[in-house]
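Re: Re: token formats

Sure, here are both.
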Amino acid sequence: LGIIKPGTSIFDQKKKINAKIMVDGSIKHKESAGSIHKVAAKIMGTESYNGWTYWYCNVGGSIVPIDNLRQRFLSKNI
């Protein structure tokens, strides 16, 4: 579905909280599952939260926000 493969771990900026990308593109953190935004909001204790800036992943040894990957994808596919 996307540019991050199912089974990949994503995490917060401090690497204290992690979630796994599921086959359907949702993420799972402990018992919470859903969109990157919904799960980040639950963790932060708010009604909504920008998951694009909350979640990070390891790309070739560099820790980057998943929003960077989204921006690269969009710029190549517009």
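Second one below.
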Amino acid sequence: MKTIAISQPRYLPACNYIERILLCDVFVMLDNVQNQRRAFEHRNKIRTPDGEKWLSIPINRKGSKSDTIKDLIILQDQEWEKKHFKSFELFYKQTPYYNEVINLLYNFYFSKKRETLNEVVKDMIGVLCRYFSIKPNIVWASNYEWNSKNDDLLIDITKYFGGDAYISGPNGREYIDEKKFYDSNIKLLYHEYNHPIYKQVWGEFYKYMTIWDMMFYYGKNTIDKIKSGKLIKSNYKKNRGDEI
């Protein structure tokens, strides 16, 4: 079985996102679709004494060619890199792996200036992969020509990369037409994530922060700690009265 996972890019990916990358044979960054302003492509949360705090990259909506993720340009007058780094620096000083992880973030934020969201995500994923010594097969949808949309696009991408199984997030149950995948002879798997719980310095545990939150506590061991999800088969055949 060759598994394909497809998801929009993430600037500060959470633990479940990285585990999904590890679970599949090919991970496709779906950057040829529209960015939703309140989505996670350009933002995520960290833990603070007051709860959770959003770190968002300011997007130049007027200057971008379109709202497609691959076309998004960053506002350059906001000093967002400095602000985001300062947040990590301030709120994670008491963590066990602070020195190691904050140096990674410093090099990421200040090594170069990036103009597009895609540049940021590519470099962010690169930093994480090198740190954890992993080599996932990641491709970008915008490097290819696609004429389909929605479920048909997911099926076409899966087939193009030789996949016979597609890994979806759990929310896929709300919008995926399972019959289309069944009729296309593609196994549909849902990634159910059981978020690991660990002690955060600010008290009550908050899950689904960026993976960097966990890295401050576990360093390179984070990559093993995040492996707590499982793949659940679609029950479409069962619903039709067939055997699985």
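The longest helix spans residues 117-132. The chain has a mean pLDDT of 94.
- S.
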